[in-house]
Amino acid sequence: MHQCRNLDKIISWGVSNAAKIPNYRAIRLEGQIDLPQDAYAILLLVNHDLFEDDDDEFVCGRAYGASRISVIATARYNPALDGIQEVEREHAWPASHCQSYIMKCIDASDSTKHPKKKSKVDSDLNVQDDQNATSPMRAALSAYVNTPPLTNSSPQDIITGTWLARVCRTSSHELGHCFGMDHCVYYACIMQGSGTVIEDVRQPPYLCPVDLSKLLKACGTTEEAQLEALLVFCERFPKVQLFMAFAAWIRAKRLIDGGA
């Protein structure tokens, strides 16, 4: 891993249409970044906004798949900004699969003159115990509701851990493009397209079977080895809902697949 200490030499600075803040600076993505000869891809993490061109406001991530270069803007994933960006914390993945929440999102997007009756959304996420429910999603939901939720008064390790989890998910998505994967239209998948931070937190942290097969082929590894590495990493953050839910999802999937 190479650490870049002089961004001015490899990126272009500019001001996007989102610039309504004094001394605001954003990185213009038309700048050139060269891939080192000893690297497969570049993942550049910056704490500035990114924008594509003069008509753009911001993007949280951008990958140039053919060049195997990706750039991630970390600032907007800060949980301290959730209120400003109207991020739905309670129904972040895996709770984004909640049926009543999905109906609420559908109702909100209905622009007809005669909208349907609004669906009632329960404020509490209830996961019923079921001895026969061993699906990865059920396991993820159970772990999610049993991990302390993120609040504005959460301890610093939960706040920073959640911030890291969000950045990891977007980084994985952009690196997927560097491996030649396009946006997924088949299943719930980390390679699904996302246009806002609100949508980002709903996305799953895993690859669907279609894109996973592509990654395993490209890396020359196995699904078991990949899941083991992900599990070891997630278990380092026992207070972060996304990491604990993903860890539970991995364990349940390995059991179904016949793993340890």
Question: Can you offer a commentary on this structure?
Answer:
The structure is a single chain. The protein is an alpha/beta fold and 260 residues long. It contains eight helices and six strands, in the order ββββββαααααααα. A three-stranded mixed sheet has the order 1-2-4, with no helix packed on it. Strand 5 (61-64) and strand 6 form a beta hairpin. Helix 3 runs antiparallel to helix 8 (241-256) and helix 7 (223-234) runs antiparallel to helix 8. It is globular, with a radius of gyration of 19 Å. Mean pLDDT is 81; it is low at 112-123. Keywords: Hydrolase, Metal-binding, Metalloprotease, Protease, Zinc. Its cofactor is Zn(2+).
In terms of topology, how is this protein built?
Layout: E1 12-14, E2 26-28, E3 42-46, E4 49-51, E5 61-64, E6 69-73, H1 82-85, H2 99-109, H3 136-145, H4 156-178, H5 197-200, H6 209-219, H7 223-234, H8 241-256
Parallel strand pairs: 2-4, 3-6
Antiparallel strand pairs: 1-2, 5-6
Helix pairs in contact: 3-8, 7-8
Keywords: Hydrolase, Metal-binding, Metalloprotease, Protease, Zinc
Region (Disordered): 111-130
Pfam families: Peptidase_M54 (PF07998)
What percent of the residues sit in helical stretches (DSSP H or I)?
25-40%
User: Beta-strand level of the residues, as a percent range?
Assistant: 5-15%
Low confidence ranges: 112-123
Structural class: alpha/beta
Biggest sheet strand line-up: 1-2-4
H/I helix tally: 8
- Total beta strands: 6
Question: Sheet bearing the most strands, described?
Answer: 3 strands, mixed
Radius of gyration: 19 Å
Order of helices and strands: EEEEEEHHHHHHHH
Mean pLDDT: 81
